Amino acid sequence: MILYKTLAGSCGGIGGYMKIALINENSQAGKNQVIEAALKKVVEPMGHQVFNYGMYAADDEAQLTYVQVGILAAVLLNSGAADYVITGCGTGEGAMLACNSFPGVICGHVEDPLDAYTFAQINDGNAIALPFAKGFGWGGDLNLEYIFEKLYCEESGQGYPKERAVPEKRNKKILDQVKTVTYRDMAVILKELDRELVKGALATKGFGEFFWDNCKDEELKKAVEEVLK
Q1: pLDDT per residue over 188-211, tens digit each?
Q2: Could you tell me which residues are beta bridge partners of residue 50?
Q3: 33: which residues sit within 8 A by CB, 6+ positions away?
């Protein structure tokens, strides 16, 4: 268990290192550097790696909608290229809905540190969607740091409050089982989605830089190669 100093005190880090992907959609791309800096400040001392998949600026050639954010997040998580995704949009709602449209993704809507902690402990997901426009004013960068600290300060899925840990863990397993029935294979989904929509989602510079070396699923890699031909 890694220990690190938070802004509010000491907190145990998650066991095991993660590849954390940052994805911004077009309306909030201008905040990418601020978000990346806050994320790296918190998680790199824990040993986690941050991979910035963009968008990096509002005028990037690759313009991601929140729907495409969901596609990209699902490709990264299902392929093993990322273990966790940090994303969002103006309100965070669209990005959350898009991410949860796909198999292998459990995305929570997070506005504050309490949201982050309870989502991690109760729902044990692998992605969060933040409202980067709503209430993001003075001190927005500090709020991000506090959110990331509470998201990763303990091993996720331990339950909160502790007396609810057993039923919460049981419910999470049930949800995982339900999703295996209600969702199809990601490689199949990619082949049936509009090709230009998917190509646009995978067009960021970061995807070309990071995906191929980090992908662990050969079938999904082949599906991505087919789409990008």
Answers
A1: 999 999 999 999 999 999 999 999
A2: 20
A3: 56
